[in-house]
């Protein structure tokens, strides 16, 4: 991006426009890899996925394969999942339990803290000079967690995770910290590849309840969701620092028909013990939380079932970019450990039917995301000079919505979820990051 283009992009974003060429531009994609995915906190997994010493999962931080495992002391570490000998992928399974990891290529073996403990034919072939201590697995530079959510960062100088999450912690406390014992992931994360750009999918969850009444029209026809086209607008859209945001969706009355998202009444005193008055106020009225942690972790806490018999389910998802127009979607279903097994099962079924890989709502969304990239790759849409007015529209709530000072949670809360405030804030932060050291040189 040259200085002229950068200036123009800045101006356009200020006006609530997003130049369409930036959606799938390969050069932009490269900048995102280096300036965003190598510098921000990326979700790796939940602590409940590695319960016992030796438990491990393999994950991806953008293009870097990660091996996360629990050691004998109960600590969780994350390493580059690449053998120090010739660099092949060390662990090839998705998850499991092992005392040590042996490389499939030449058989080098590493223990649970990543030390190289076995070299086939050892000194006989490598001589005395090679010190095994120098050839352990390479640690992910920073690994930190909040409410059981483990994130990694490739930048050793990054700000601490908690500071990065900022106000989002307050909302994580409601979704993840309301029950004694916290949450657990059920099963392995669902994973599939879709034609889409990661910015558009992140935006869809973090910032776009407006699509619900059209894209998910079939749910209205099946009487799973209300007929009122404004139904996903009621509540607040809350903008936070660093491109994070959440929609706290309620109802026309501002209340929910199912207190605490339909969680069983015997759990209420526990919520009331673990959360503050303000958090309880939000939690008792919310129907859906839907939002995102920049860059590409999204979540939705919703309810499925019939009226009076609704079951809450929460899923976190990562939109891992694998190209400018392709993502790998990872979805973790989570539920309160303290919920009785029978309710967990009902909740899980609700999740599978809606937001699992074969869920109805999931399929509606994926269609649209593919169509965005398909329609953004031609000459007109890709023109960097914007000669064809090729900007897309983020003008909802641009100059007609003021923050609601009375909202009890942190962040800047707007009194409608049909607004582009979070999307605009994501774009602003995104541009700040991708142009980080470009500014002085070019502009
Ligand atoms: S590449 Fe792993 S032992 Fe050679
Ligand atoms: Fe959707």
Automatic annotation (TrEMBL):
CDD domains: RHO_alpha_C_NDO-like. Gene3D superfamilies: Naphthalene 1,2-dioxygenase Alpha Subunit, Chain A, domain 1, Rieske [2Fe-2S] iron-sulphur domain. Keywords: 2Fe-2S, Aromatic hydrocarbons catabolism, Dioxygenase, Iron, Iron-sulfur, Metal-binding, NAD, Oxidoreductase. InterPro entries: ARHD_Rieske_2Fe_2S, RHO_NdoB-like_C, Rieske_2Fe-2S, Rieske_2Fe-2S_sf, Ring_hydroxy_dOase_asu_C_dom, Rng_hydr_dOase-A. The keyword Oxidoreductase applies. It comes from the Bacteria. Residues 41-137 form the Rieske domain. PROSITE patterns: RIESKE (PS51296), RING_HYDROXYL_ALPHA (PS00570). Transmembrane segments: none annotated. One of its GO terms (molecular function) is dioxygenase activity. Belongs to the bacterial ring-hydroxylating dioxygenase alpha subunit family. This is Aromatic ring-hydroxylating dioxygenase subunit alpha. It comes from Salibacterium salarium.
């Amino acid at each position: 991006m040259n200085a002229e283009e950068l200036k123009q992009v800045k101006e356009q974003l200020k006006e609530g426009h997003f130049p369409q060429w930036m959606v799938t531009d390969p050069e932009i994609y490269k900048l995102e890899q280096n300036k965003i995915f190598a510098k921000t906190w990326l979700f790796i997994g939940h602590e409940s996925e590695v319960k016992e010493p030796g438990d491990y999962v393999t994950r991806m931080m953008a293009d870097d394969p990660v091996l996360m495992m629990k050691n004998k002391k109960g600590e969780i570490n994350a390493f580059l999942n690449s053998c120090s000998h010739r660099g092949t992928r060390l662990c090839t399974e998705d998850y499991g339990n092992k005392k040590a990891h042996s490389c499939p290529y030449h058989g080098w073996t590493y223990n649970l803290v990543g030390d190289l403990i076995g070299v086939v034919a050892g000194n006989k072939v490598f001589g005395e000079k090679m010190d095994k201590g120098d050839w352990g697995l390479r640690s992910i530079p920073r690994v930190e967690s909040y409410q059981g959510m483990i994130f990694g960062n490739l930048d050793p100088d990054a700000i601490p995770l908690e500071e990065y999450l900022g106000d989002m912690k307050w909302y994580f406390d409601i979704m993840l910290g309301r029950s004694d014992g916290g949450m657990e992931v059920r099963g392995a994360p669902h994973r599939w590849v879709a034609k889409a750009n990661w910015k558009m999918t992140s935006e869809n969850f973090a910032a776009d309840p407006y699509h619900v009444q059209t894209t998910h029209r079939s749910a209205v026809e099946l009487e799973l969701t209300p007929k009122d086209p404004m139904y996903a607008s009621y509540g607040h859209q809350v903008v936070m620092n660093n491109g994070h945001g959440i929609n706290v969706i309620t109802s026309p009355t501002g209340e929910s028909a199912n207190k605490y998202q339909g969680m069983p009444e015997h759990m209420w005193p526990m919520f009331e013990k673990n959360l503050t008055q303000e958090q309880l106020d939000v939690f008792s009225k919310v129907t859906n939380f839907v939002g995102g942690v920049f860059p590409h972790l999204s979540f939705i806490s919703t309810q499925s079932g019939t009226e009076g018999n609704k079951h809450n389910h929460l899923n976190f998802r990562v939109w891992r970019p694998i190209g400018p127009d392709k993502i790998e979607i990872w979805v973790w279903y989570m539920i309160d450990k303290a919920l009785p097994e029978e309710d967990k099962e009902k909740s899980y079924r609700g999740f599978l039917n809606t937001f699992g890989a074969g869920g109805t709502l999931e399929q509606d969304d994926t269609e649209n995301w593919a169509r965005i990239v398909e329609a953004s790759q031609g000459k007109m849409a890709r023109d960097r000079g914007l000669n064809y007015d090729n900007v897309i529209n983020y003008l909802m709530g641009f100059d007609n919505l003021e923050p609601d000072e009375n909202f009890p949670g942190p962040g800047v809360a707007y009194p409608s979820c049909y607004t582009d405030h979070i999307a605009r804030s994501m774009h602003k932060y995104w541009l700040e990051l991708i142009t980080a050291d470009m500014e002085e040189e070019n502009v």
